[in-house]
Amino acid sequence: MDLINTCFATTNEVRTLAYYSHLLPIIVSLLLGTVVLLYAKNRNKAILFFTFVVLLSLWLTGNLVTWVSNNYYLVAGFWSYLDFVNILFYLFILYFLLIDVGASKRFQIGAMITGFLASIPPFIITLAGLAVYEFDEPNCEMIGNDWLALYKLSFEWFVIVVIVLTAIISLIKVYSKRNEFKRILLTTISTVGFLAIFSGTEFLATYTGVYEINLYALFTLPVFILLLTISIFEFRTFKMVVDSISMVRVLFAIFAIVTIINLFFIDDTGEFIITGTGAAVTLGFGLLVLRSATREASQRQQIEHLAKRLKQANKRLKTLDKQKSEFVSIASHQLRSPLTAIIGYASLLQEGSYGRIPAKAKQPVERIYTSARSMAESVEDYLNVSRIESGSMKYEMSNFNLKDEVEYICDDLRTDAMKKGLVLFFKTDLDSSAMVHADLGKIKQSIHNLINNSIKYTEKGKITVLVRDDVKKKKIYVEISDTGIGMDEETISNIFQKFERAVNANKTNIQGTGLGLYMALKIAEAMKGTVRAESEGEGKGSKFIMELPLVK
Ligand code: ADP
């Protein structure tokens, strides 16, 4: 049988336009649908979405044939199923959206049954060959079934209205959950936008008789399909394991396909070579960029993952730290009263309040007294740390002469230094009295600790305590230098943290809580000052500097 070629009314320009406007949405939707089908965890939604894009592509293919073909049989054959397929993909996007926005089960089932029943009459009409009547030769079209066209248009608008209403109800329900709200909003906007453009332009084209409107409108479809993609990727509509780089890949694939298709429309050899070379360079370059972007993205993903885990671990550590402080605080309170009793009675025993103690017992009683004292000091340290951490530490502020106070402390500790064979110097370049505004007791305690540390961690040599000021900076400094065990850089950066003790400290002085420096720093900071350490390295001595603001 001869093929009847009649449709010469379709110009080449319109044909090219028809190719572009149809092929682009076909490629975009099929690619996206496949990605979804491959990666989606929610199988129901993925299958519905995939069926929707396949039906849409089927419709687009059929429609394309009716636009570009001159073959009567082809045009008639494809035209006859278009309306029914059109109804079907509306039905599937409705099913998809109902599940996606979380409509109630009863409503979902009701809508599905109604939709299915509503698609039966067009199915019968199409099957019976009543969808199209005859070929309208001068207009290059089929004469379709008017009733079916009207039915289809009503069906389309009904679906759009149901989708909008369901989405509004869901949006109201999830209003407080920001992410869910944004996700549903984006899915709804992209779906409704897609359907409204599709049905709206169809209606407009029928009304005005300018069918090219349909072709231009098809160009907007990929935008909505992409929006839907974004909603899928960004908000994990399908709980996908893919990230935004996959979307860039999809876009690149679309770009590549469109560029290659474009080449087929070029008749001129010269133009073909130029465009072809341009396309090859662009695609090659794009591929390189994509590769490095993929690498970067996977690294970023790894870092994000690690950062998330670190944050969780940090949170857990903070909770544990708080629990630990609470425990220490309770335990210390419990320890304080028996210790006070031990110290008190040991002291009374030594003073002879219970009669003369035998010579043999003198030393043990002395040991009981000193050990209990040092334990009481540690307990006091623990309590102070938990007070600092809970913010309940009380400071009694007053103005005092720091230089004099430091000198008294040096006088106090000189005997201890001498016992170890060390010399303790006190130096100052201050002429007048330099006043500070701070908690006298706590500052004295901190400086006492710093000098005491220098004695503890120095085997031989000297300890020099210098008090100097910097009037311009309005600061006063207490510098304690020793010729002791020194510290490496790592130790310096750690020792101001709670319970931190250097390895060499353990060797020199087994006893120690690792709390002295932590507290000295916290107390100085509360007085708007600071404490820092310097050392040339292990075995090369250390220098601790306390800095406080000058009152005048
Ligand atoms: P403690 O002395 O009870 O261990 P500190 O908080 O006072 O606790 O000191 C923390 C650590 O800092 C010490 O264990 C020691 O490693 C180091 N350190 C402090 N002072 C000196 C010093 N003068 N020389 C060398 N190391 C020191």
Task: Report a brief summary of the structure.
With about 550 residues, the chain is α+β, with helices and mostly antiparallel strands. The chain contains 17 helices and nine strands.
Which class of secondary structure composition applies to the elements? alpha+beta
**Helical stretch tally:** 17
The main pleated sheet reads as:
5 strands, mixed
Average pLDDT over all residues? 84
Radius of gyration: 42 Å
Order of helices and strands: HHHHHEEHHHHHHHEHEEHEEHHHEE
Total number of strands: 9
Distance between the termini: 113 Å
Can you list the strand order of the major beta sheet?
4-6-7-9-8
Overall geometry: elongated
Q: Indicate the low-confidence ranges by residue numbers.
A: 1-8, 237-242
Ligands present: adenosine-5'-diphosphate
Helix content: 55-70%
Share of β-strand residues: 5-15%
Structure description:
The protein is of the alpha+beta class. The chain has helices at 12-39, 43-68, 72-100, 105-118, 120-127, 146-173, 178-208, 212-218, 221-235, 244-264, 269-351, 359-390, 402-419, 440-456, 489-494, 503-508, 516-526; strands spanning 132-136, 141-144, 397-401, 423-428, 435-439, 462-470, 475-482, 530-535, 542-549. The structure holds adenosine-5'-diphosphate (ADP). The site of adenosine-5'-diphosphate (ADP) has 21 residues, from helix 14 and helix 17.
